[in-house]
Amino acid sequence: MVPNTLLSDDSDRPARSRSFTEDDRAIEGLPIRLVIALVVGVAALALMLNMLGTIGTVGDTEVTAEIDDTDQVIEAGQKQDVTIDVIDENGNEVEDATIIVTAGSAQLNGPADEYTGSSSNSADVTIDPDLRADQDKGTLEIDVVPPSDSNYIDEQPNAEIVVVDR
């Protein structure tokens, strides 16, 4: 027979029949356990978010704009067509892209854009560049908007068109 252990207080009930609400020892380790659970949870969440952040870039292919050799340097004050090709990082043609030419250090009346079409990766963009009175040369920036239903992206800087005053 097991002897009945009496409580340290004045109660004459055995320790085994003591109720949970009367036990003050349960909260002694609770704060540190909550801190550990919180730290482990935050670390696991950070790891999962890092893994999810890299999923979107799998398979994306960079596109770039190439300027025809004769159109890399153009004259200010004259309306002209510039031939621009869109290719991917492997040199393959990219169709259905939009080419946008905007002012850099040279000036334009507004952005010029042209669609390459579904049968070509090339477009002739009509631009009318100008320079400020104190400028001898400037640049125009080229952006490519890849087809929306593809895995193409344009995050790297493209070639620039140089505008000179002759």
TrEMBL record:
Residues 69-119 form the DUF7382 domain. It comes from Halosolutus amylolyticus. Keywords: Membrane, Transmembrane, Transmembrane helix. Coiled coil: none annotated. This is DUF7382 domain-containing protein. Residues 1-20 are annotated as: Disordered. It comes from the Archaea. It holds the Pfam family DUF7382. Signal peptide: none annotated. The chain crosses the membrane at residues 30-49. The keyword Zinc does not apply. Residues 10-20 have a biased composition (Basic and acidic residues).
